[in-house]
Specification:
The chain is mainly alpha-helical. It contains eight helices and two strands; from the N terminus they run H-H-H-H-H-E-H-H-H-E. A two-stranded antiparallel sheet has the order 1-2. It starts with a helix and ends with a strand.
Length: 191
Protein backbone atom coordinates (compact mmCIF):
# COMPACT_ATOMS: atom_id res chain seq x y z
CA UNK A 1 0.00 0.00 0.00
CA UNK A 2 2.78 2.41 0.93
CA UNK A 3 4.76 1.51 -2.20
CA UNK A 4 1.79 2.34 -4.43
CA UNK A 5 1.28 5.69 -2.69
CA UNK A 6 5.01 6.41 -2.92
CA UNK A 7 5.03 5.67 -6.66
CA UNK A 8 2.08 7.98 -7.29
CA UNK A 9 3.61 10.64 -5.01
CA UNK A 10 6.79 10.69 -7.13
CA UNK A 11 4.71 10.93 -10.31
CA UNK A 12 2.66 13.86 -8.99
CA UNK A 13 5.75 15.58 -7.53
CA UNK A 14 7.29 15.52 -10.97
CA UNK A 15 4.32 17.49 -12.29
CA UNK A 16 4.38 19.91 -9.34
CA UNK A 17 8.10 20.59 -9.73
CA UNK A 18 7.62 21.13 -13.48
CA UNK A 19 4.84 23.60 -12.70
CA UNK A 20 7.13 25.58 -10.37
CA UNK A 21 10.03 25.42 -12.85
CA UNK A 22 7.85 26.63 -15.72
CA UNK A 23 6.45 29.47 -13.62
CA UNK A 24 9.97 30.47 -12.56
CA UNK A 25 11.21 30.50 -16.16
CA UNK A 26 8.15 32.29 -17.57
CA UNK A 27 8.20 35.04 -14.92
CA UNK A 28 11.90 35.98 -15.03
CA UNK A 29 12.88 34.11 -11.87
CA UNK A 30 9.94 35.25 -9.75
CA UNK A 31 8.78 32.91 -7.01
CA UNK A 32 5.27 31.59 -7.53
CA UNK A 33 2.92 32.95 -4.87
CA UNK A 34 -0.45 32.31 -6.52
CA UNK A 35 -3.15 30.51 -4.55
CA UNK A 36 -2.47 27.38 -6.63
CA UNK A 37 1.23 27.48 -5.79
CA UNK A 38 0.54 27.99 -2.08
CA UNK A 39 -1.86 25.01 -2.04
CA UNK A 40 0.67 22.91 -3.97
CA UNK A 41 3.37 23.80 -1.45
CA UNK A 42 1.17 22.90 1.53
CA UNK A 43 -0.26 19.63 0.16
CA UNK A 44 2.40 18.54 -2.33
CA UNK A 45 5.55 20.36 -1.29
CA UNK A 46 7.72 17.30 -0.70
CA UNK A 47 7.56 13.51 -0.77
CA UNK A 48 6.30 13.21 2.80
CA UNK A 49 3.50 15.75 2.32
CA UNK A 50 2.56 14.23 -1.03
CA UNK A 51 2.34 10.68 0.40
CA UNK A 52 0.40 12.01 3.38
CA UNK A 53 -1.99 13.91 1.09
CA UNK A 54 -2.51 10.79 -1.03
CA UNK A 55 -3.16 8.72 2.10
CA UNK A 56 -5.59 11.29 3.49
CA UNK A 57 -7.41 11.46 0.16
CA UNK A 58 -8.35 7.76 0.32
CA UNK A 59 -9.27 7.66 4.00
CA UNK A 60 -11.17 10.89 4.49
CA UNK A 61 -8.49 13.14 5.98
CA UNK A 62 -8.67 15.43 2.95
CA UNK A 63 -11.51 15.58 0.44
CA UNK A 64 -9.99 14.01 -2.64
CA UNK A 65 -11.77 16.57 -4.82
CA UNK A 66 -9.64 19.36 -3.28
CA UNK A 67 -6.43 17.58 -4.21
CA UNK A 68 -7.82 16.72 -7.64
CA UNK A 69 -8.62 20.38 -8.37
CA UNK A 70 -5.08 21.58 -7.70
CA UNK A 71 -3.49 18.66 -9.60
CA UNK A 72 -5.87 19.24 -12.50
CA UNK A 73 -4.82 22.91 -12.54
CA UNK A 74 -1.20 21.79 -12.87
CA UNK A 75 -2.13 19.65 -15.90
CA UNK A 76 -5.10 17.60 -17.03
CA UNK A 77 -2.77 14.58 -17.13
CA UNK A 78 -2.18 14.77 -13.38
CA UNK A 79 -5.87 15.34 -12.74
CA UNK A 80 -6.82 12.15 -14.59
CA UNK A 81 -3.91 10.26 -13.06
CA UNK A 82 -5.20 11.27 -9.64
CA UNK A 83 -8.70 10.02 -10.54
CA UNK A 84 -7.10 6.73 -11.58
CA UNK A 85 -5.18 6.64 -8.28
CA UNK A 86 -8.39 7.08 -6.26
CA UNK A 87 -10.19 4.45 -8.33
CA UNK A 88 -7.30 2.00 -8.09
CA UNK A 89 -6.81 2.44 -4.35
CA UNK A 90 -10.48 2.39 -3.36
CA UNK A 91 -11.79 -0.31 -5.67
CA UNK A 92 -8.62 -2.32 -6.08
CA UNK A 93 -6.22 -2.27 -3.19
CA UNK A 94 -8.56 -1.44 -0.31
CA UNK A 95 -11.18 -3.95 -1.44
CA UNK A 96 -8.49 -6.64 -1.53
CA UNK A 97 -7.46 -5.71 2.01
CA UNK A 98 -11.08 -5.79 3.19
CA UNK A 99 -11.66 -9.11 1.39
CA UNK A 100 -8.65 -10.55 3.20
CA UNK A 101 -10.10 -9.55 6.57
CA UNK A 102 -13.52 -10.92 5.62
CA UNK A 103 -11.96 -14.20 4.50
CA UNK A 104 -10.04 -14.51 7.77
CA UNK A 105 -13.23 -13.79 9.71
CA UNK A 106 -15.02 -16.45 7.70
CA UNK A 107 -12.30 -18.98 8.49
CA UNK A 108 -12.54 -18.15 12.19
CA UNK A 109 -16.31 -18.51 12.00
CA UNK A 110 -15.92 -21.87 10.25
CA UNK A 111 -13.58 -23.04 13.00
CA UNK A 112 -16.13 -21.89 15.58
CA UNK A 113 -18.84 -23.93 13.82
CA UNK A 114 -16.57 -26.97 13.78
CA UNK A 115 -15.84 -26.48 17.47
CA UNK A 116 -19.55 -26.23 18.28
CA UNK A 117 -20.21 -29.37 16.24
CA UNK A 118 -17.42 -31.24 18.03
CA UNK A 119 -18.77 -30.11 21.41
CA UNK A 120 -22.26 -31.31 20.52
CA UNK A 121 -20.91 -34.68 19.35
CA UNK A 122 -18.97 -35.00 22.60
CA UNK A 123 -22.08 -34.16 24.61
CA UNK A 124 -24.00 -36.84 22.66
CA UNK A 125 -21.26 -39.40 23.42
CA UNK A 126 -21.38 -38.47 27.10
CA UNK A 127 -25.16 -38.71 27.09
CA UNK A 128 -24.97 -42.13 25.43
CA UNK A 129 -22.39 -43.35 27.97
CA UNK A 130 -24.45 -42.02 30.87
CA UNK A 131 -27.64 -43.71 29.64
CA UNK A 132 -25.73 -46.95 29.00
CA UNK A 133 -24.31 -46.77 32.54
CA UNK A 134 -27.80 -46.10 33.87
CA UNK A 135 -29.18 -49.19 32.14
CA UNK A 136 -26.29 -51.33 33.38
CA UNK A 137 -26.92 -50.17 36.97
CA UNK A 138 -30.63 -50.86 36.58
CA UNK A 139 -29.91 -54.45 35.45
CA UNK A 140 -29.93 -55.78 38.99
CA UNK A 141 -29.79 -59.46 38.04
CA UNK A 142 -26.82 -58.94 35.65
CA UNK A 143 -28.56 -60.70 32.76
CA UNK A 144 -27.49 -58.15 30.14
CA UNK A 145 -31.10 -57.23 29.57
CA UNK A 146 -33.26 -54.78 31.45
CA UNK A 147 -36.83 -55.84 32.20
CA UNK A 148 -39.59 -53.29 32.59
CA UNK A 149 -39.91 -54.35 36.26
CA UNK A 150 -36.19 -53.74 36.93
CA UNK A 151 -36.52 -50.40 35.17
CA UNK A 152 -39.58 -49.38 37.24
CA UNK A 153 -37.91 -50.43 40.51
CA UNK A 154 -34.75 -48.50 39.64
CA UNK A 155 -36.75 -45.38 38.76
CA UNK A 156 -38.40 -45.46 42.18
CA UNK A 157 -35.11 -44.38 43.79
CA UNK A 158 -34.97 -40.60 44.49
CA UNK A 159 -31.30 -40.44 43.49
CA UNK A 160 -32.12 -41.95 40.10
CA UNK A 161 -34.97 -39.47 39.62
CA UNK A 162 -32.59 -36.60 40.43
CA UNK A 163 -30.09 -38.10 37.98
CA UNK A 164 -32.74 -38.12 35.23
CA UNK A 165 -33.63 -34.53 36.03
CA UNK A 166 -29.99 -33.57 35.49
CA UNK A 167 -30.59 -34.65 31.86
CA UNK A 168 -33.77 -32.58 31.88
CA UNK A 169 -35.79 -35.79 31.62
CA UNK A 170 -38.92 -36.49 33.58
CA UNK A 171 -39.43 -40.03 34.90
CA UNK A 172 -42.46 -40.34 32.62
CA UNK A 173 -40.15 -39.58 29.69
CA UNK A 174 -37.87 -42.34 30.90
CA UNK A 175 -40.78 -44.79 30.64
CA UNK A 176 -41.38 -43.57 27.08
CA UNK A 177 -37.70 -44.11 26.36
CA UNK A 178 -37.96 -47.69 27.61
CA UNK A 179 -41.00 -48.37 25.39
CA UNK A 180 -39.13 -46.96 22.39
CA UNK A 181 -36.12 -49.16 23.07
CA UNK A 182 -38.33 -52.22 23.54
CA UNK A 183 -38.99 -52.46 19.81
CA UNK A 184 -40.10 -56.12 19.94
CA UNK A 185 -42.46 -55.43 22.91
CA UNK A 186 -40.92 -58.23 24.98
CA UNK A 187 -40.67 -56.06 28.14
CA UNK A 188 -36.88 -56.55 27.96
CA UNK A 189 -34.24 -54.22 26.50
CA UNK A 190 -30.77 -55.47 25.59
CA UNK A 191 -28.00 -53.43 27.18
Amino acid sequence: LFFIMYFFALFFLHGVSEHFRTYYEDNDGAICETSLCLELQSLCGDVVNMVLSLFMSICGGVDWRDLWVILRDVSWVYGWAFIFYIFFMVFGVLNVVVATFVEQSSLISQRDRELVTQNELEKNRQYYNNIRGFFEEADLDGSGTLSSQEFEDYLGDENVQAYFQSFELDVTQANTLFRLLDWDESDDVDI
